[in-house]
Design a protein that fits this description.
single chain, Serine Threonine Protein Phosphatase 5, Tetratricopeptide repeat, 12 helices
């Protein structure tokens, strides 16, 4: 019972250690005055989904593009402007020819739904094609899809499998996700030491919240010796 409570405590700490939402005024200042790519991307999401502002796809597209131009590739469209049907058909041919970056780009288009009609099942299909070509971001996205049942049936074992493939390729969020799976026993047996191992790897890859969790868990393990 005590061990379960410790595990739950770490899960709460890790989840609430993530970045909280920022005020839109602060985001606009950071994006427009300081050229903060992450702030531009966050603004794009607010306008895209109509959160705290009126939904505006033109504004969303503009902020996403600025974020991309500043080096934040979370949403870099494979289209220079709006995608035409001809563009999509050409990208599908290139994806079939094993251009896995294009497969990932197509998945993002269908996932986000700005340039084309949103289609989560198609997004999942193209993420899978890209992941088959060892595109580690695509593998991470597939793990999330299987975790929440987006376009696919929920499958906790596949979540772990795709997290592991992505983490082995050096994708930081996949490592922290895999650590959380071992911590919760979701898709795998609870393994405190494995969780520590993957939180450490995520920390080494630059995740500050994973560093905090790793040091706390590491100290807890050592204090038991």
């Amino acid at each position: 019972m005590k061990k379960v409570l410790v595990v739950l405590a770490f899960m709460v700490m890790f989840c609430f250690g993530q970045n909280a939402g920022q005020d839109i005024g602060q985001l606009e200042q950071a994006c427009n005055d300081n050229n903060d790519a992450r702030a531009c991307y966050s603004l794009g999401r607010l306008y895209h989904y109509g959160k705290t502002v009126k939904q505006d796809t033109s504004q969303a597209r503009g902020h996403y593009k600025k974020a991309c131009d500043l080096g934040y590739d979370e949403y870099c469209s494979i289209c220079s402007d709006q995608c035409s049907q001809q563009d999509i058909e050409q990208f599908e041919i290139e994806c079939s020819d094993r251009s896995y970056e294009i497969c990932f780009g197509l998945a993002r288009l269908y996932h986000v739904g700005l340039e084309v009609n949103k289609d989560i099942k198609k997004a999942a299909e193209y993420y899978e094609k890209a992941c088959d070509g060892d595109h580690i971001n695509a593998c991470y996205r597939l793990a999330i899809f299987y975790q929440y049942g987006h376009g696919v049936k929920k499958n906790s074992k596949k979540v772990v499998w795709y997290y592991e493939k992505s983490c082995n390729g050096g994708f930081v969020y996949a490592c922290s996700g895999l650590a959380s799976s071992y911590l919760a026993g979701d898709g795998v047996m609870i393994n405190f030491r494995k969780a520590v191992e993957y939180f450490e790897k995520a920390c080494d890859l630059g995740s500050e919240s994973s560093c905090n969790t790793y040091y706390t868990m590491y100290n807890s393990l050592n204090n038991k010796k």
